[in-house]
């Protein structure tokens, strides 16, 4: 059973490699008294091994958290860097060298409007977030980078977390009907692509219909919706 918490409540989360996600703030050393508080109202969640804890709340305003994957849109170039809209209060910075194999002479040619799948490398309440487009451990792209073609769907933060749950029905159900590509960011944005434009439209409509902020359809409801589409 999920535990509902309110802002300011103390959270007793302890682990050797404890990582705090959105909605939680460490006010003192965890090893001493575990003084962690919630900064938002919602459901207290944790990973299977209790190493990562966060607050699940249905919101459309994304608060960046380190190591989270996001889908962003380039809005400006600043010298050798880019400014990227990730749906947070402030635009994020993306260094020109934060790509696999990037050098001063060989770096991506991103334009305003380019869609990116990136990871938050720095998130602090007093600083603008920073992004990187490679895996911090392997230094390989691992799927991060520019997303070409396709369509960007906006949804609630809760919906994006649902889509990242491997047990959620929607993407496997759609994938059984036709080939598709999807990149889901924890910032409430999902990039989708398919060979047929009708399939892209179907994916977008299904995401919006399943979103708790939308129709909140279950699996049977989505199957009925797909039956009404020309796919």
From TrEMBL:
Source taxon at top rank: Eukaryota
Primary location group: cytoplasm
InterPro entries associated with the record: Exosome_RNA_bind1/RRP40/RRP4, KH_dom_type_1, KH_dom_type_1_sf, NA-bd_OB-fold, RRP40_KH-I, Rrp40_N_euk, Rrp40_S1
Domain K Homology: 150-197
Compartments (UniProt record): Cytoplasm; Nucleus, Nucleolus
This protein's UniProt keywords: Cytoplasm, Exosome, Nucleus, RNA-binding, rRNA processing
Domain Exosome complex exonuclease Rrp40 N-terminal: 18-61
Family to which the UniProt record says this protein belongs: Belongs to the RRP40 family.
Protein name (Swiss-Prot/TrEMBL): Ribosomal RNA-processing protein 40
Organism: Somion occarium
């Amino acid at each position: 059973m999920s535990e509902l918490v309110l802002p300011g409540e103390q959270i007793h989360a302890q682990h050797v490699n404890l990582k705090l996600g959105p909605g939680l703030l460490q006010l003192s050393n965890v090893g001493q008294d575990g003084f962690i508080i919630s900064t938002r109202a919602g459901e207290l969640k944790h990973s299977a091994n209790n190493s990562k804890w966060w607050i699940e709340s249905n919101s459309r305003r994304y608060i960046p958290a380190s190591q989270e994957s996001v889908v962003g849109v380039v809005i400006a170039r600043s010298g050798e860097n880019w400014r990227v809209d990730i749906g947070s209060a402030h635009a994020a910075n993306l260094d020109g060298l934060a790509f696999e194999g990037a050098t001063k002479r060989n770096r991506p040619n991103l334009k305003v409007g380019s869609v990116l799948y990136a990871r938050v490398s720095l998130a602090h309440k007093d600083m603008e977030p920073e992004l990187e487009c490679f895996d911090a451990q392997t230094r390989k792209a691992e799927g991060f980078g520019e997303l070409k073609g396709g369509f960007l769907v906006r949804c609630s933060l809760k919906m994006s977390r649902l889509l990242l749950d491997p047990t959620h029905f929607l993407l496997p159900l759609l994938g059984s009907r036709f080939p598709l590509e999807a990149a889901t960011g924890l910032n409430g944005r999902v990039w989708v692509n398919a060979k047929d434009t009708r399939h892209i439209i179907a994916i977008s409509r299904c995401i919006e219909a399943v979103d708790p902020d939308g129709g909140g359809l279950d699996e049977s409801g989505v199957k009925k919706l797909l039956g009404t589409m020309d796919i």
